[in-house]
Amino acid sequence: MNRWTRTLVLLALFAAAGTVRVAGAVRDRADVYLKDGTTLRGDVSFTAGEIVIRNAAGQVSYPRIAVERVVWADPPADAKQAYHRKYEVLAPRDVQGHLALARELAKQGRLDLLEVQCKHILSIESENAEAQRLLEKARTREPATRPASATKATPDPKPKRRDSRQGLIPPPLLSKKDINRIRLAEYDLDGPAENVRVHFVRERREKDVEQLVQQALERDPAADPDALRTLKRGKPYEKLQVVLNATGLKYADRIETRGDPQKFREFRRRVLPLVVKSCGRSGCHSGANSRGFRMPAAPQSGDAYAYTSFYVLTQIQTRDGPLLDRALPEASALLRYLLPAASSGKHPHPPLPAGRLRPGLRSTRDPNYERIALWINSLNYPTLDYGISYERPDWLVKLATPPEPAPPTSRPVASRPAASRPARP
Q1: Within a domain: 4
Q2: Which residue range(s) make up the domain with 303?
Q3: In CATH, what number is assigned to the domain containing residue 53?
């Protein structure tokens, strides 16, 4: 078969691709773009976890996670079909993808479809705070775009009123991608490289991350020869330290960390339990009546809870300075707020609207006091911008705004000097 004959056969197959009906499915023609660069055209249908494409050349199926995008040949007949097209393309357990679709439905006012979408998300993550909030919105407001033929619900004889004293909404949970970026941004760049599990993602038709960094360093006359040797023959976690030192988070989306680095293991074992014990109570910083800020609404053993809590704590600026002061750890407001009022000096925890504060620390001599101070000292300073795609709730945006400078005499002096901190390159 010569080149022209092969060309005619291929053209015939593509021409016929739009005329074949998928057995058992409504005809819906589309171009399917896979993440590996392949493009297929044909009638598209979906099964559990898979996308099925059929044309004159036959029928193939791929996991939905392998699909980059689908371009439909015909516009959707209505909003419901448009929703189902977007829903079907997503992997069933892609929580972030389904949340993005839920936000889109909320903006469009399609609260009938939003309710369906939120129920799907909650069937995957029953404690997903954003899905719970959107579901409440879908159930408490009648959408203007709901079809006129829909049956009107029987009015509740005792309509529920929103409590004007209701507290803060819980912060959305960080995605796995955002958690990964935080791990990379906080990875130790000085001293021996920490042995963490790391995987450099290989991209088709692109050079490996190590090769890209190696070539950049080879063009730099001031590059460290040891760094070049590490990129050639080092272990993955040693290469990771060189890559982050040289490029920051430039290649963060092509680097996957697996498991917690030491400073986050310490946070989850030592620091977070004390914060939860002292602050994570209803009426304080947890539950519907929370004030000031709110801890996440999720299982406390999960990564999403731990890293979202960490991120929230790093963002908060109080009237007494940052909650976590990386420059001077013992000046951190968190340490003073965990102490009893008698031991916290001139800047105790602000009074609670109701109830008593439960101190997490007994005094500055408490062993946990020094553990927390040392942990704050272990955080990278100055820190990199995490570059995460995170929608901060309004209360966190306000708390993250640096307050007006206080008079110099109002800043407490650390009881002992903090460890010296080399600046991050």
Answers
A1: no
A2: 262-410
A3: 2.30.30.100
CA 19 – CA 312 distance, rounded (Å): 54
CA–CA dist 200, 251 (Å, integer): 9
239 with 367, same domain: the answer is: no
Instruction: Please tell me whether residues 132 and 195 are part of one structural domain.
Output: no
Last residue of a domain, one of 211, 232, 258: 258
pLDDT tens digits, one per residue of 138-183: 877 544 344 444 444 444 444 343 333 456 788 899 999 999 999 9
The token pair that represents 413 in the structure block: 């002096």
Establish if 213 belongs to a structural domain: yes
Pairwise CA distance, residues 32 & 27, whole Å: 15
Residues 231 and 370 in one domain: no
Number of domains observed in the structure of the chain: 4
pTM over 0.85: no
Q: What is the 3-state secondary structure (H, E, C) of the chain?
A: CCHHHHHHHHHHHHHHHHHCCCCCCCCCEEEEEECCCCEEEEEEEEECCEEEEEECCEEEEEEHHHEEEEEECCCCCCHHHHHHHHHHHCCCCCHHHHHHHHHHHHHHCCHHHHHHHHHHHHHHCCCCHHHHHHHHHHHHCCCCCCCCCCCCCCCCCCCCCCCCCCCCCCCCCCCHHHHHHHHHHCCCCCCCCCCCEEEECCCCCCCCHHHHHHHHHHCCCCCCHHHHHHHHHCCHHHHHHHHHHHHCCCCHHHEEEECCCHHHHHHHHHHHHHHHHHHCCECCCECCCCCCCCCCCCCCCCHHHHHHHHHHHHHCEECCEECCCCCCHHHCHHHHHHCCCCCCCCCCCCCCCCCCCCCCCCCCCCHHHHHHHHHHHHCCCCCCCCCCCCCCCHHHHHHHCCCCCCCHHHCCCCCCCCCCCCCCC
Per residue in 208-235, pLDDT (tens digit) is 999 999 999 999 888 899 999 999 999 9
Residue ending a domain, choose from 227, 242, 258: 258
State the residue for tokens 């479809």. 113
Positive or negative torsion for Cα 125, 389, 252, 173: negative
CA distance 210 to 70: 32
Amino acid at 253: D
User: What Cα–Cα distance (Å) separates residue 210 from each residue in 65, 131, 238?
Assistant: 26, 39, 11
Q: 99 CB contacts (<8 Å, ≥6 apart)?
A: 121, 128, 130, 131
List the one residue out of 64, 82, 63, 69 whose CA is nearest residue 31. Answer: 69
